[in-house]
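Board notes, transcribed. Complex of a protein with NDP.
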Amino acid sequence: MLFKAFEVAESSEKEYKSALVTKSEDDLPPGEVLIKVQYSSLNYKDALSAIGNKGVTRNYPHTPGIDAAGTVEKSADPHFNRGDKVIVTGYDLGMNTSGGFAEYIRVPASWPVHLPEGLSRKRSMMFGTAGLTAALSVYNLKKQGITPPNGKIIVTGASGGVGSLAVAILSHLGFHVTAVTGKEDAVDLLLDLGAKEVIPRAAIDDHSGKPFLKAQYAAAIDTVGGNILATVLKSLNYGGVATCCGLVSSPELHTTIYPFILKGIRLIGIDSVLCDHHLRKEIWEHLATDWRPAKMDKIVSVCTLDTIQEHLDSMLKGQLTGRYIVKIS
Ligand code: NDP
C-alpha cells in the first residue's frame, strides 16, 4: 500500500525543506493500530518540527502532525476494530513518530481515543490538540472552584488556536471573558466568539517592576508565557487562578513570590501530551456535548497537504488567526 505524506528533510546546507512524498506501509513505525487519516490540524509544535527544532523532532526526514482523526484500518489490539473512528493527539505523534500530515499513521494502542458520539472526525480536528488544551485549561479552572460569578477570565494569545478556543468555550459556559490580542483585525472575531472585551497585548505587558497591578481578573488562561504571564499573575484578584500552557512569547517567567504568598494565587501547568487517558476521554466527551461552542466554525479554515507549508510559515510569524484543519483524504 502506497500513500501520500508531507515530509520535512534536512538538506546538505543544514536547511529544512518540506515536500509531498510517496511512502509505503513499511515506512511507518511499529504499533498495534494502523489508521487511515481523514483530517489533521495545524499546531505551533508542527511549525517547530517543520523548521528542524530538535526540542520537538530529533531525526529527519520526518512527517509532522501532532493531531489525526481517522478510521482504523488494522488493529492488533482488541480495543480497536477495523472501521472504528478514532482521534489521536499528543503522545509522540508528529514529534519523533511519523505524524498526521500523511494518509496513514501507525501508533501504539494506548494512544487513540474512540471518537465520542456526536463529534465528526472533521469537527474533532477543529478542536485538535489546541481544543483539548483549551478545554483542559477550563477544566482546571473549574476544578479550582472558578465559576462565572467569580469575575472576569483573561485569555492571552486569544486569536491563536488554543486562545480562540478557550475564549469560545469559556463564553459558551457563561464566563465573562477578556481577550488579549496583538492583532487589531482579530477584535471583531473575538467579540463574535463571545469575548466581552478585547484588550491589546501591550496593555498586559507591564515593565514597572511593581509586585502587584490593579486586581481585575478572577482567573486566566495564558497561552504565551514570558512577561505577559508575569503581568497576568500581578493582575489577578485575591485567590485567583492562572493556567499556563505555551511559550510563544517566551519560555521564561520572571516574577516574584508575592502574588503567591500574599494573595494565594495559584499557577497551574497544562499538559495535553501525556495527560491521563481517562481525563482525555472525559474532556473529548465535554467537547462533543456541553462544552461545544456554537460559533467555532467561524475560526476554522481548511487547508490541504499541498498548502500546509505556507500556513506553518505564517504560524511561526504569529500571523495565523484561529484554527487550521488539514483535509488529508
Ligand atoms: P498559535 O500560533 O495558533 O497562537 C499563538 C498566539 O499567541 C498567536 O496567534 C498570537 O495571538 C500570540 N502571539 C504570537 N506571538 C506572540 C508574542 N511574541 N508575544 C505574545 N503573544 C504572541 O499557537 P497555539 O494556540 O497552537 O499554541 C499556543 C502555545 O501553546 C504554543 O506555545 C504551543 O506550543 C503551546 N501548546 C501547549 C500545549 C500543551 O499541552 N502544553 C498544547 C498545545 C499548544 P494574538 O495575536 O491574539 O496575541
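Residues 43-45, 129-130, 133, 157-163, 181-183, 186, 201, 223-224, 228, 245-249, 270-273, 315, 318, 320 surround NDP (CB under 6 Å). Residues 128-269 form a domain with the Rossmann fold fold (CATH 3.40.50.720).
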